[in-house]
Design a protein that fits this description.
The chain has two domains: 121 residues, Rossmann fold (3-Layer(aba) Sandwich), CATH 3.40.50; 104 residues, Arc Repressor Mutant, subunit A (Orthogonal Bundle). It is α/β, with parallel strands linked by helices and 245 residues long. The protein is built from nine helices and twelve strands. The strands form three sheets. A five-stranded parallel β-sheet has the order 2-1-3-4-5, with helices on both faces. Helix 1 packs across helix 5 and helix 4 packs parallel to helix 9. The protein is globular.
Length: 245
């Protein structure tokens, strides 16, 4: 099975894990199951997945900690599945790097649909990327984005962005200096227009800011325009902004 179709299901309820695996396999995915936090981390190393379904209430290490550790070293798409419906839990999950969030009870079909959407975004929509133009690249100042591979660089240094962070940066970079309202950014990062809180945008901006500041080793280039939204001010390039093809 192609590793690009491999999904790690981290769920301690055996019946629910089996149900999710049945639906995923029917849709053409390879699945592996981990029943606790430590085994999830080990399974991720032993058989790197293309996406992770992650329950929050896990023995050993809870889902939040598993997400933190995965996100420290990987931009793999993570879909959190949990019985916690409070907004604060959803926001915390997004802030530590989850790409999407579903509360129980949920439809297994929706889970499969969300996984498909995450993979299409993270893999740069591979079906179309094979014929994509090698010039499908956006460069502004010291920043460069590649559409085909959904990759980003700052002065030649690769940025470890999640799919949502990549789409957020691309939206801002297309019109640097323009103020985008939260609603506009929500439309850009969630193409299916699902009901997502404005605070989700704040969480993703916070994560993107942190990664850009780490790469730039300088001031924050994403400005908050209070009561409106966010603006990207890109510092000028200093040499090559992206690796040569």
């Amino acid at each position: 099975m192609n590793a690009e179709r491999r999904v790690l299901v981290v769920e301690d309820e055996a019946k629910l894990a089996a149900l999710l695996c049945d639906y995923l396999r029917a849709a053409g995915y390879e699945t592996r199951v981990a029943e606790d936090g430590p085994s999830a981390l080990q399974a991720f190393v032993d058989h790197p997945p293309a996406a992770v379904l992650l329950d929050l209430n896990l023995p050993g290490l809870d889902g939040m900690e598993v997400c933190r550790r995965l996100r420290h070293d990987s931009a793999v798409p993570i879909l959190m599945l949990t019985a916690r419906a409070d907004e604060i839990d959803r926001i915390v999950g997004l802030e530590i790097g989850a790409d999407d969030y579903l509360c129980k009870p949920y439809s297994p079909r929706e889970v499969v649909a969300r996984v498909g959407a995450l993979l299409r975004r993270s893999q740069g929509r591979l079906a179309g990327a094979a014929g994509a133009s090698p010039t499908s690249r956006l460069e502004v100042g010291g920043m460069a984005l590649d559409d085909a591979g959904q990759r980003a660089w700052w002065r030649g240094q690769a940025l470890p962005l999640t799919p949502i962070e990549w789409r957020l940066l691309r939206t801002l970079l297309q019109q640097p200096g323009r103020v985008f309202a939260r609603a506009q950014l929500l439309d850009a990062i969630h193409a299916d227009f699902r009901d997502v809180s404005d605070r989700a945008v704040d969480s993703h901006v916070k994560n993107l800011r942190r990664k850009l500041q780490t790469a730039m080793a300088g001031p924050d280039c994403i400005a908050t325009v209070y009561g409106v939204g966010y603006r990207l001010d890109v510092p000028p390039a200093a040499g090559s902004s992206a690796p040569s093809a």
